[in-house]
Design brief:
The protein is an alpha+beta fold. It has one domain: Aspartate Aminotransferase, domain 1 (Alpha-Beta Complex). The chain has three helices and five strands. It has helices at residues 3-15, 69-75, 103-116, and strands at residues 30-33, 40-48, 59-66, 81-83, 92-96.
Length: 118
């Protein structure tokens, strides 16, 4: 099972979140949103590394989550994290899903994002 599939499975099992695929142009972009208020708490997508400011070529799977500004400021300089992709860079953070961040840390951050967006 891929890390993406594990995250989506966790969201379904823990929050009863049915994954939403709202973008016709990007059918693989998976949105995690609350049932009650439809706010997003996560977005999984595959983008070109160059779009993230990475020197390498090719694509990478990422998860964008909401976090407190102090945590965003701290983590965006840590290996495996980047400023938010296509979201407010003060309140959102990109996590690389390439194994550079432990799954347990990703799950903890996703949980915090879930709580922040209720």
């Amino acid at each position: 099972m891929s890390l993406k599939e594990e995250i989506l499975s966790y969201a379904l099992d823990t929050y009863n979140t049915q994954t939403d695929y709202p973008f016709k142009k990007f059918p693989d972009y998976a949105v995690l949103r609350h049932k009650c208020n439809t706010k997003w708490y996560g977005l999984i997508m595959q983008v070109n590394k160059i779009q993230l400011g990475l020197a390498e070529s090719g694509k990478i799977e990422i998860l964008v989550i909401k976090a407190p500004p102090e945590l965003v400021a701290l983590l965006k300089h840590k290996e495996g994290f980047l400023p938010a992709y296509h979201m407010n860079k003060e309140h959102w953070l990109t996590i690389r899903l390439d194994g550079s961040v432990e799954k347990s840390e990703i799950i903890d951050l996703l949980h915090d994002s879930f709580l922040m967006t209720q």
